[in-house]
Amino acid sequence: MTRIEITFLGTTAGVPTHNRNHPAIYVHYKGREETVALFDCGEGTQRQIFSAHLNFMRIDDVFITHWHADHFAGLLGLLFTMNMEDRQRPLNIYGPEADEWVPQITSLGYGKLRFPVKVRNVEHEGNQVETLMENDEVMVQAIPVKHGVPAVAYAFIEKDRVKIDKEKARALGLPEKGLVFKKLKEDGAATWKGRRILLQDVSIVEKGKKVVYTGDTMPCMNVVKLAENADVLIHDSTFFEEDREKEWKHAMFDEVLKVATRANAKQLMLTHISRRYQNLEEIEKRIAGLPNVRLARDLMKVVI
Fold first, then answer.
1. Is the CATH number of domain 3-160+207-303 3.40.440.10?
2. Of 122, 152, 206, 273, which has the most beta carbons under 10 Å away?
3. Is 112 helix (H, G, I), strand (E, B) or coil?
């Protein structure tokens, strides 16, 4: 059985607190092969990785939502620690205007990276979903969001899996196992004892899992679009009361609930919490009656 492990490395907003680090999320997909990705990389991210007993060297893709310091300031340290640990394989870094920002980060100081860093810009205008990374089992997509600077949200998506239904196969006289099933999966059809069998005749589709991370954003329909039927929606919930007059360009709790409802998200995780909320138990009480809503905390792990 496949699984996606989501570890919250940082859940605060612009200023860290004693209990909450700057934004970063470590996603580990376990299927036929394993995929490890990092979403945002705030200051202190590599220390949080150590605290969570995770392996930073397994990360192959880093997805930055936008270039405010609390979302990328840990990238420099992470890159050069990888360098000191003799990383050889490439690291892919994605983000809006990434070709402008990543070279500036990697050029700081006297050090020089000995492994390739591949940069890909992510479209930050419009309302189109863009596929950025894809392998046989998963893909990562992005869409522009509504913030004060170019910013995007990301979706980590497991592809639908076609599985052989043993009862359907048995009813058609197929064996318990054999090369016929390999041919069915590769070609979509096979001949068995003179009879043509279609894959759809003996299979079921297992819907893939989807995790969406908004980064910093005001409520917007692009998030609803990307997060449609998501298993987990991780949404900016910086404020829990009206604060629009300051134009922070973040989301408020009541607005986030509406976005999650419109998207039909199965579970909502609230993150990027302002430091003004020192008593998280008060927030927990507020959401206690909402069974599919959780407050993200540093080093929390969610498995789907």
1. no
2. 152
3. coil
